[in-house]
Amino acid sequence: MIEARSFFEDEVLSTMPSQPGPEGNKTPLWDQAKMVKISLGDALVVPIKYEKPQGIKAEGEKTFRDLQKSSYLLIYKDKNKNMQAEWVSLAPMGEKKNDKFVGIISVHEWNGKPKHAFAFNQNGNIALMQETNVFFRKASMRNSVLCYKVDYTYVDIRRDENGLYDVEVIGYTRTNCITIDDYNEPNYEDFEYNFGAVSGYNGIGPYEYSDKIDCAGFPGGTAIFSTECQQCIGGKTGIDKCPTDSLKKIMKPKNDCLTDPQNTMLNNTFNQYLYEGNNEYWKCLRNFIYKKIESSGIKIGVCLDPTITDNGAYRPSQKNILLPNEFTLSSSSLFGHEFFHVYQDAHYPGGTSQYSYTGNPNLEFEQALFKDIINGGFPTSAMGNGVSTQLQDEYETWIKSITNNFTIKPLQFSDLKGKYNYFLEQFYQNGPYNRRGAINYNLRPDALFSIFTNSNCNFEH
Amino acid sequence: MKKINSNTKCLLITATLVLMQLLGFAQTKLTDLKDGSINKALNYSYQIKKTIKYIEIDNINNKFTNIKPNSPGLYGQVLTKPDIVIDMEKISKICAKHISTKQLEILTVGTKYTGLRIIIRTDIYGNTLEIGFFTEQNSILTLNQLEKIENELMTTKLISMKPEILPLLEGSNFWQIRPKFYYEDLLKVKVEMEASKP
Fold first, then answer.
1. Does A404 fall in a domain?
2. 3-state DSSP call for residue A304?
3. Which of A129, A320, A442, B185 meets the CB 3.0–4.6 Å disulfide criterion with A133?
4. Are residues A44 and A147 in the same domain?
5. How far apart are CA A140 and CA A81, in angstroms?
6. How far is A8 from chain B (nearest CA, A)?
7. Is residue A362 part of a domain?
8. Any CB–CB contact under 8 A between A373 and chain B?
9. Which of B162, B159, B166, B131 is nearest to B56 (CA)?
């Protein structure tokens, strides 16, 4: 609370002096402040005393409600860890319905500048209104009116005369206005003071709106801010659980070749690798690869090394992934490539150091073949941009054939229909790998077979 | 009615034959075109390269037909999904639009994994620079059809690159993507297109 109050008094009041509206000067009642949990973490809710008692009402409402009981100062840290101070006002609408707040929550900066507002309807739908939606604003010593124009869409489903469904997407625009006016107007209606209600119409409704807007910024979203990993997870973030922990489990205890910002970058890249995209098949396979590395006990380091002449390398003898620069550190594709090599190191008895020369092209081709099978065969990683179209066609036809058009997975060497070594040689001759090592004809792609055999992930392209 | 004399008749027959030959040439099946030949279609001329198994067809105005793509920033790595997004559905529909159902039925009989490979050459942002074709040597498609497909593909956004990977593509002379459209898949698309016609 001390930190929040200092921030408010030192930074908010000094940089944004209050410009009184009809409510006059606002005074935070610090002795009545209370800490609450919002989706971004801890927040301080502070009641406000107004110099001139005012009422607030939403558009279409007949009665005003006591502004002092319907508003508060909210201080919290946003997802970038910056302190925020907001003047939050609640304007309920309509009849009391199932403890749901129905109405408008408007958020202003302390000096009265509108930030945004949220309209909640009876179905629990939420519309976000930003400053760009403001089309009417009037503030005087007597009253203030703020109006937002919001575009809504809804889907209308109805049957035609033949009983067939007809679906129409309808868009419409409506306005939402909030008025603050004199407390002593005759149509003022008092209501039960219930400042502490977490949600519900009883009294003033939700005393903080953040439970309606998740930490990823989605109205009605379910993402939560994890204090443990200091990240917004779940909901529509694409991140299901605290990724930092997952990475920690497979990292060397001391990975001191990255700076703190670079470590953050690595965390983000790892998140993307594990959770990015909508392809559940890829996510399932990546998760399997991760779990296998974790259970193998291998601990890796990730370092930047500008001297490597590639977009990435895995050094099995040191268990280090080397990336040449921050750009490659932030690429989940490049990380995924090297992470597969870590899996190979964990899978092959004795690790992959023994294949640093003879067998190196095998490891690279296995990685590319794995990617091509799970990608649905195109664009191919092993026979890409530079090879002849004929070779590309032969290779893609082979992949279709060994997967029976992506309905089965190769589980043993005989499933590769006798052509593995041919394409390994083509890969070696046409790729960048002919300058590295030699083919090991005794090394079969067992790491790839083990993933397909044990992962239980279903094809999805 | 005035009688046509024998000289005029001869001239008319010759002119008709020449016209038929010119029109028919572009209607010649790809399988009948000669390796190394240049053949006119509706508006463009196409160069033909043949091997025992395949035929490669490129507009003679294409600049990168014989140039190998080079992306030094990739160190030989190949970009795939999800770094590159190809609108396969859109391309399928364009191909299916210009190939008849009967042709597709013939092309799918007794064969597996045969199809039309579109060679899309783009700049690093995925903007199409030129189009080429590659298919099995025994194709019954015609140059006129390929020209129509090319024209439509050239005016359609086909490829998008993830912005994050653009630094890797810097220094590239061009980027080449060669998706194959299998005839059995195109036949399904064609049937759907026909069924959805009012």
1. yes
2. strand
3. A129
4. yes
5. 35
6. 39
7. yes
8. no
9. B131
The string of pLDDT tens digits covering residues B10-35 is: 566 555 545 444 444 457 899 999 99
Per-residue 3-state assignment (H helix, E strand, C coil) for A235-253: CCCCCCCCHHHHHHHHECC
Same domain, A436 and A389: yes
- The tokens describing A172, both together, are 């419409």
> Pseudo-torsion of CA A283, A285, A289, A290, nearest 10°?
20
Asked if A386's CB is within 8 angstroms of B68's CB, the reply is: yes
pLDDT computed for residue A289 by the predictor: 96
Weakest-pLDDT range from A8-17, A97-106, B179-188: A97-106
CA B20 distance to own-chain centroid: 24
- Chain A's closest residue to B79, CA to CA, is A381
Question: To 5 degrees, how large is the angle CA A117–CA A121–CA A127?
Answer: 40
Is B69 touching A (CB cutoff 8 A)? yes
Please give the tally of structural domains in chain A. Answer: 3
In chain B, what residues touch A333 (CB-CB under 8 Å)?
Answer: 79, 82-83, 165
Are A379 and B84 a contacting pair at CB < 8 A?
yes
Helix, strand, coil distribution of chain A in percent, nearest 5:
30, 30, 40
Measured CA to CA, the distance from residue A209 to residue A153 in angstroms comes to: 23
Give the nearest chain A residue to B56 (CA atoms): A389
Residue that wins the pLDDT comparison between A461 and A198: A461
Selected for mutation to probe chain A from B62, B71, B75, B81 (highest A CB count within 10 Å) is B81
Q: By the CB < 8 Å criterion, does B164 face chain A?
A: yes
Boundaries of domain holding A224: 213-242
Are A64 and A55 within 8 A, CB to CB? yes
Clarify whether residues A273 and A422 are in a common domain. yes
> Do both A128 and A263 map to the same domain?
no
- Contact call for A400 and B113, based on CB within 8 A: yes
Both A94 and A223 in a single domain?
no
Position A5 pLDDT exceeds 90: no
Q: In this predicted model, which residue has the larger pLDDT, A5 or A161?
A: A5
B86 touches chain A (CB under 8 A): yes
Do both A187 and A39 map to the same domain?
A: yes
Residue A159 resides in a domain:
yes
Q: For residue A109, what are the contacts with CB-CB under 8 A and spacing of at least 6? A: A16, A85, A86, A87, A115
Same domain (yes/no): A117, A92: yes
Q: Identify the residue among B78, B111, B177, B184 best suited for mutation to test binding to A, counting A beta carbons within 10 A and taking the highest.
A: B78
In a domain, A265, yes or no: yes
Q: Report H helices in A177-331.
A: 243-250, 260-275, 280-296, 326-329
Interface check A382 vs B, CB under 8 A: yes
What ipTM score was computed for the predicted complex, to two decimals? 0.79
pLDDT digits (tens, 9 = 90+) for A299-325: 999 999 988 878 899 999 999 999 988
Residues A265 and A373 in one domain: yes
Q: Which residues of B touch A309 (CB under 8 A)?
A: 75
Q: Given an 8 Å threshold on Cβ–Cβ distance, is A389 in contact with B81?
A: no
Mutate: best of B113, B162, B175, B182, partner A, most A CBs <10 A: B113
